[in-house]
Amino acid sequence: MCGIIGIIGSAPVASRLIDGLKRLEYRGYDSAGIAAVHQGVIDRRRAQGKLVNLQKIVEQQPLEGFVGIGHTRWATHGAPTESNAHPHMTHKVALVHNGIIENHDQLRAQLIARGYVFASETDTEVIAHLLHHELNDTPSIIQAIRITLHQLIGAYSLGILIRTHADHLFAVRSGSPL
Ligand code: GLU
Fold first, then answer.
1. Residue 119 dihedral angles phi and psi, to the nearest 5°
2. Given the CA of residue 77, which atom of ligand 1 is nearest to it?
3. How many CB atoms lie within 10 A of CB 150?
4. Residue 117: how many other CB atoms lie within 10 Å
């Protein structure tokens, strides 16, 4: 069972996100990551293994931004590698996920047919591309999230960051705790 944390802060949140993830370490995990929005751009850092690995990467390559999400992953779909670690993102959205998307194969095939390119083996990445796609078509963010969720079969809790709404975090759940 993974850990999810989100912070809307008044100062850079990277180290506080990692501190928050440390408090969830007892739940078990195999990789970890954080993402934040800074000057209208979403950026992320991820690492395989323990949080100390992520911390080292963030020390070498600091992550700016006052609003962010963090995740400790317990791999269900795809090996516990850095490229499969959350957050998964496009240039518009970043998200972290606890749970399993059962229809990920079908959704991935539809998204690939529409031209989306996948960078991980996870079920989670389909949600990022699907939400990106719906945001292109739907002016309301809440509506785009709703349309995305209606296409998912499975259990999920999600923390979502959207580039154009850098003072908000979106959190949803179905069948998974958050
Ligand atoms: N199914 C997702 C994955 O394998 C989320 C796993 C979790 O809950 O940490 O990446």
1. -115, 5
2. 4
3. 8
4. 8
Counting Cα atoms < 13 Å in the Cβ hemisphere of 46 gives 24
Q: Which two tokens stand for residue 57?
A: 């990467």
Q: Among the atoms of ligand 1, which is closest to the Cα of residue 120?
A: 10
* Probe target for ligand 1 pocket from 24, 30, 74, with the most ligand atoms within 8 Å of CB: 74
* Tokens 């580039």, located at residue: 163
97 lines ligand 1 (CB under 6 A): yes
Distance from residue 166's CA to the centre of ligand 1 (Å): 25
E strand or H helix that includes residue 55: helix 51-60
**For the CA atoms of the chain, what is the radius of gyration?**
15
DSSP-assigned letter for residue 25:
G
How many angstroms separate the alpha carbon of residue 30 from the centre of ligand 1?
10
Answer whether 157 contacts ligand 1 (Cβ < 6 A): no
pLDDT tens-digit series, residues 103-141: 999 999 999 999 999 999 999 999 999 999 999 999 899
pLDDT at 114: 97
pLDDT band with cut points at 50, 70 and 90 for residue 2: confident
